[in-house]
Amino acid sequence: MKEIAVDTILQQTPHRSISCKAKEVLLAAGDTASSIFLVKSGCVRAWYNADGKDITLQFFMAGQPVASFESLVNRTPSQYTLEVVVPSEIDIIRGEEFRHWLKTHPEHHLDGMRFAMQRVASYQSLFLSRITQSPQQRYEALLREHPEIVRQIPQQYIASYLGITPVSLSRIRSRIKSYNLEK
User: Fold this and answer.
1) What is the pLDDT of residues 35-55, one digit of tens each?
2) How many distinct structural domains can be found in the chain?
3) Mean pLDDT, the chain, as a whole number?
4) Which of the four pLDDT bands, split at 50, 70 and 90, describes residue 8?
5) Parent domain of 142
6) One domain, residues 144 and 60
7) How many CA atoms lie within 13 A of 58 on its CB side?
């Protein structure tokens, strides 16, 4: 599936660029989204607070747009926080500027639909992996499909994303290393 044309959006839409430190919050849960963030470098994660427990929903790497789209579209409070994981460069497009861009560039509506479909597919895949795979299988899939996440992201966030504790992740990583050494 074709990626949304991030460079095209930036060329044709007013935006601002910012440098962010790790743990900087772009959107707090409970706030209403007013912008779309485009990750130029680094990583942003979407996370949810479940009774004091931090649950990572998704990671967004360089070249990917991120927002609380439900909040932006419906103008309702976001259910989750968008937080910078590692020092990052972010472009920010205000929601009304993006909506104006879509109105004046209808040829990109299909790109937007493709992006939305990719995001839904990603959430479906994550949901299915949680109910059909063991934590080790989920980690191995992450290693295969997104090695950049494993290389760049602190282990506690990866564990949260996989739905396990950091101690369990450490054990899984040790088993995988031992297994690979025996091959």
Assistant:
1) 999 999 999 999 999 988 899
2) 2
3) 87
4) low
5) 134-183
6) no
7) 19
Q: Within a domain: residue 1?
A: no
Domain-ending residue, one of 95, 115, 132: 132
Residues 138 and 124 in one domain: no
Determine the Cα–Cα distance for residues 183 and 181; give it in Å rounded to an integer.
6
Dihedral sign computed on CA atoms, order 159, 162, 163, 167:
negative
Is the pLDDT confidence value at 182 over 60? no
pLDDT at 2 over 50: no
Q: Are residues 51 and 98 in the same domain?
A: yes
Q: What is the DSSP string of 58-116?
A: EEEETT-EE--HHHHHHT-B-SSEEEEEEEEEEEEEEHHHHHHHHHH-GGGHHHHHHHH
Could you tell me the pTM of the whole model?
Answer: 0.85
| DSSP H or E run through 48 | strand 35-50
DSSP state of 132: H
Quote the radius of gyration of the chain (alpha carbons, Å): 17
Token pair of 18 as six digits = 């910012």
**Are both 182 and 142 inside the same structural domain?**
yes
Q: Which of 73, 84, 74, 86 is nearest to 27 (CA)?
A: 84
- Helix, coil or strand: residue 16: strand
